[in-house]
Amino acid sequence: MTPRTSLLALLLLTGPALAEEPGAATGSSQALLSIPELAQQARADHPSAAQQIDQAVPFTRRTGSLRWADVPTGPELSAIWLDLALFGPEERAVRLARAELGAGEASAALIAAAFQVADDPRLRGSLLQHTRTADGSIVTAVLQPALRDPDPEVRRLAVHAITHRTDGPQHVGLLQRSLADGSPNVRAAAAFGIGVHGSPAQLRSLETLLQDPDAKVRLNALRGIERIEPSQAQTKASVLLHDPDPKVRRDAERIMR
Q1: CA atoms within 13 Å, Cβ hemisphere of 56
Q2: Under DSSP, is residue 121 helix (H, G, I), strand (E, B) or coil?
Q3: Which of 8, 9, 122, 131 has its CA 20 to 30 A from that of 64?
Q4: Considering the chain, what percentage of its residues have pLDDT values greater than 70?
Q5: 115 and 34 in one domain?
Q6: Could you give phi then psi for residue 119, rounded to 5 degrees?
Q7: What CATH code is carried by the domain that includes residue 188?
Q8: Which residues form the domain of 183?
Q9: Are residues 163 and 203 in the same domain?
Q10: Of 10, 72, 14, whose CA–CA distance to 41 is shortest?
Q11: What is the pLDDT of residues 16-32, one digit of tens each?
């Protein structure tokens, strides 16, 4: 096995251990080189598929989103798609579509390497699209670092992904930490996630958010309390009967009936 083939096998097959090496959270020079090197090796191994990927043109759906038809995909080709997404010359929308497709069958380690070097927050968000259904290693390798991303929309997408994972109950601690996020959209998403996966142990945190300055956060916190402990919902809803936001007031009134 050649050194380059060894590197390809390592990133395609390993789980979170690679992403947890010292310096991974900040984006090391090794990560900067890994995607192009892996793509180069994949191109050498699959020249015909690589040519098809290079020439592929997405089509626009009625919703305005871009999709691909009859293109070669697979874990062994993910590095090519991600390399073009990160470093290709195409317009942003096409690179975002390449990132989403490439991440769909990539290993957690490969997505983590791409996430570390993506300087566009929209690209980082696209890489998170399939993390809801990936294996458990994706949480440590990608979603946990994404919760510390400087861009609030990337952090919200990470919370959303954790909430909709089947192993979400195992990661309630991550959601609870996001309740203190500086972005109201992230706090609202985390409050929703706690309502889906939380237990009475998280009730106090949700109660605190009933005083949040953002209406969406207060609404999701109230609904979360209702899901976790319906017997306490009326007591908590009473403090929001005169909330300045009409949606919050209506939900409080509904619970009080």
Answers
A1: 27
A2: helix
A3: 131
A4: 87
A5: yes
A6: -85, -5
A7: 1.25.10.10
A8: 151-257
A9: yes
A10: 10
A11: 333 333 333 434 444 44
